[in-house]
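Here we describe the complex-level prediction in full. Unlike the single-chain runs in Section 2.1, the two entities below were treated as one system.
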Amino acid sequence: MSELFVGTIWPLFELVLLTLLIVVPLLLAVAYLTYAERKIIAAMQLRQGPMFVGPYGLLQPLADGLKLLFKETVIPTRANKGVFVAAPIVTFVLALVGWAVIPFGPGLVLADINVGVLYLFAVSSLGVYGIVMAGWASNSRYAFLGALRSSAQMVSYEIAIGLVIISVLISAGSLNLSEIVEAQARHGWYVLWHFPMFMIFLVSILAETNRHPFDLPEDEASLVTGYNVEYSSMAFALFFLGEYANMILMSAICSILFLGGWLPPLDIAPFTWIPGPVWFALKISAILFVYIWARATLPRYRYDQLMRLGWKVFLPAALLWIVVTSGAMVALDLLPK
Amino acid sequence: MTIALFVFYVFALVTTASAVMVIAARNPVHSVLFLILAFVSSAGLFVLLGAEFLAMVLVVVYVGAVAVLFLFVVMMLDIDFVQLREGFLQYLPVGALVGLVLLVELALVFGTQAVETAAVDMPPTAPPGVTNTEALGSLLYTRYFYLFQTAGAILLVAIVGAITLTLRHRPDAKRQDISRQVHRRPSDTLEVRKVRPRSGI
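The structure predicted for the assembly as a whole is:
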């Protein structure tokens, strides 16, 4: 009995505990990301932002969550019920499972798998299903149009992201996220070597998470709010949480691939006092700030311009960069053994 | 029962059940969704076998790209579900026959392989400590290099064929020419004239 406990049940229990240790702070971060977004945009537009619920409006995200929780769940009569209910759950779960392979510090990772980058790529490519299912199951024109736009957009920008990742992989010589960060300790951050790719990645993750200025799927002026127009209460909240958790996940991937993950900017005294996970969080926050900054400053792209940017600009540029990177590495004999 | 065995049975059960549902579901969109579930759970089976690279590629390529397009097409089609069901019993014997032939062929292949493994030219197995990706890469780019390149060339031809079949030049469509817009100067389009009152230009 005790052997069964030590051998089987305890590791499972430990796994659940570690998962909660990631998911709970993540949900808290999502809640306060919405607060930060409102405050930063307000500051950029010379407004106050939320300021009445709690000191400086700090309890506003909790109040919003409670409000959504107590609203009535409406399922349209003509909706395809099973798929309609499954869609927000799929979106939310997929936004969480990616975190399993993210290293927060040296050795601080739930699952240190050898194909970490591919896993993240697979999870993010599944994300489109939540949206397509929602759009189709709602049985509503606006929702379906939003879903169609969204999936075309996500499929297009995934290709750009995949090609950008390849040049980083060639330099690091591994698909393991921890090893990619450790390679940057030796080579210097890849944002220095692959700066054009960093810019392409940054713009592509805006499009991949359907954020401004590429938020055509929920273009409120022409599609009401797109794929989630028929959703209410917690079902809507799950989409919302999923979108923000995805933003944080993409920022985390970006900081691992280009900004050296948990590494301090310089490996000398005052910087090394701060622990790795804190550096990681700071880098994620910096990229999230860019997300919000773009939302406050840029007008929405037109759909054909969005597609042109993905297929005719980013795709050839990323392909060219792969050729340049691999050519240079072979010529200078820098290839990782 | 170990955890790995339990997980294997869960994945195997989900894969088979969703594969059955692909043909049993009344709604074609549900069929595609079950197909996706079957893909994902067979990726789980690959992971249990230790073929993690193949598992991820299966999800990225089939689920992330191919099935999305498939789902698109099925969603856009205006299908009469009742009419679709009608021919089911009529075609059942043919389907069963094809299934039987496949089963016998598979049994023959595995039967001969079990008897004379040495006769088959098996690819070398990777030494321990080499990751999946490395092992596959070093096989594909050395031993099977020409086959790999041929497969790539065939896919390229398919792409070119698909594009030529669907490409139409529409002279009436208005397109944006970015470089023309960028190179436009005020002197090309603007002209300042003095207009005297009560007389046109």
